[in-house]
């Protein structure tokens, strides 16, 4: 595998930055690794375990190097899916294999529903889909409460709620205010509101991602092999439950991967998972 080469792609309303780690002579499809709102840096360790394949990573619109020009407040899974469709065209048209995690898994499901011919295998890891949960109304109310906190109080208090929500195990309480939330200051989060409301997670993708309902009829009919993956250590958490709900709607069973929601990462963000074991599991699924 060569050193990553960075490119940019002009799409409607944004300039998308992406990196290509080329494996010369590889007969395997390109492996596209995507997150949202996490940028390409989160896949650095995992990409290093696939030196025999060309690996492509990217920054979603509005994140890191990918700048938005659309003037919109939010980005939807459909919008991200169109970006991915254009990105796959730019790297050869596919079909590619896709490993997608968290919000990236939601966006990838939207991509496959629209353009199945571009994806051979999709491994969708822990998509945080509130609408497939048995307590969907409570989950969506908790997310809406978090968004309202962000609009009212800014990043710190809302991010504290996000941490509480994503770590919560089991069904959500009827009243979102009953969910225990840590003190933002105790978690090193900013106590002062800087007035900005354009955070990629809380301001651009939170509601549109979690409240998205995939087109399961289109996914079941797709030529793409869709594999839903969940973390071994994530039992009861919303993202794992979203994956389990999606698999049930697809008529399949989720594949359990090592570690947790970020189990594929090394020390990119100071919270390493089990990237070697995770990569081995991913390789096994892709080669099945």
UniProtKB/TrEMBL annotation:
It holds the Pfam family Abhydrolase_1. It comes from the Bacteria. Coiled coil: none annotated. InterPro entries: AB_hydrolase, AB_hydrolase_1, AB_hydrolase_fold. GO terms for biological process: glycerolipid catabolic process. PANTHER family: AB HYDROLASE-1 DOMAIN-CONTAINING PROTEIN (PTHR43433:SF5), HYDROLASE, ALPHA/BETA FOLD FAMILY PROTEIN (PTHR43433). Residues 41-176 form the AB hydrolase-1 domain. This is Pimeloyl-ACP methyl ester carboxylesterase.
């Amino acid at each position: 595998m060569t050193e990553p080469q960075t490119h940019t792609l002009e799409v409607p309303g944004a300039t998308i930055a992406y990196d290509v780690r080329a494996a010369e002579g590889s007969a395997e499809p390109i492996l596209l690794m995507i997150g949202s709102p996490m940028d390409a840096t989160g896949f650095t360790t995992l990409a290093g375990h696939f030196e025999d394949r060309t690996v492509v990573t990217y920054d979603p619109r509005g994140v890191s190097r990918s700048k938005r020009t659309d003037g919109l407040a939010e980005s939807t899974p459909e919008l991200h899916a169109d970006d991915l469709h254009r990105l796959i065209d730019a790297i050869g048209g596919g079909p590619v294999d896709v490993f997608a995690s968290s919000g990236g898994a939601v966006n990838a499901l939207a991509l496959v529903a629209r353009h199945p011919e571009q994806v051979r295998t999709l491994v969708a890891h822990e998509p945080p889909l509130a609408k497939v949960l048995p307590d969907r109304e409570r989950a969506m109310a908790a997310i809406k409460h978090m968004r309202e906190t962000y609009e009212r109080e800014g990043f710190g208090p809302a991010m504290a709620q996000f941490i509480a929500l994503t770590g919560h195990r089991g069904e959500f309480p009827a009243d979102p205010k009953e969910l225990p939330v840590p003190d933002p200051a105790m978690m090193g989060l900013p106590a002062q509101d800087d007035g900005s409301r354009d955070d990629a997670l809380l301001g651009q993708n939170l509601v549109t991602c979690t409240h998205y309902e995939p087109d399961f009829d289109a996914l079941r009919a797709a030529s793409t092999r869709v594999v839903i993956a969940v973390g071994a250590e994530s039992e009861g958490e919303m993202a794992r439950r979203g994956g389990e709900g999606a698999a049930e709607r697809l008529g399949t069973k989720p594949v359990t991967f090592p570690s947790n929601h970020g189990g594929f990462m090394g020390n990119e963000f100071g919270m390493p998972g089990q990237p070697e074991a995770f990569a081995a599991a991913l390789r096994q699924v892709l080669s099945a």
